[in-house]
What we know:
Mean pLDDT: 94
Shape: globular
CATH architecture of the largest domain: Up-down Bundle
Structural class: alpha+beta
Oligomer: single chain
Order of helices and strands: EHEHEEHHHHHH
CATH class of the largest domain: Mainly Alpha
Number of strands: 4
Strand order of the largest sheet: 2-1-3-4
Distance between the termini: 38 Å
Number of domains: 2
Amino acid sequence: MDDAIIFHHAPMSRSNIVSWMLEELGVPYEIKPLSLERQDQKKPEYLAINPMGKVPTIEHKGVVITEAAAICAYLADEFPAAKLSAPVGDPRRGLYFKWLFFGPSCLEQAIIDRMHDRIPAPPRASSYGEYETVMDTIAQAVAVGPFLAGEQFTAADVVLGSGVQWGTFMKALPERPEFAAYLGRLQRRPALQRAFAKNQELYAKLHPAG
């Protein structure tokens, strides 16, 4: 069925973002598992779907959608009953989109530079400017909270929250009480807990010990 969501997913990767999003939606979806260790994402059958050879990818209504933030934005609008977006006409929609794309364009790039001890591009050429400014900006936003759009949890929290969680785990974010409190709120969400458990189980199946 074209209406079915097909999720090409490599657990314990950026795919986890969309895994969490799908659990928040509470709609059926079919997982097509991939192992990055086996380079499944570079095999011809997957490259025919996503020529970039990246995860995640979804197929829905005959359309292929890539890039985690774009997938989450699409799903939030496609399934409005879950209330994971700010609808068209809502004055918060601009703020919602700001944070939805702040994750991959600013936070993720700052984390990667910090993890790999890379010298960032000059601020005028960088996608994020300066590391400390990124951290201060996020800390100020989540301190007001409880979520990025105020009282409503949205796909922006799935995307940016995943980045905060990953950066904290990789010790590429400073230890700040604002981050710890925000992560605590996110980690209490049943959908995130379900996604984490499913991803651990799927990863173990794809990579059996021994």
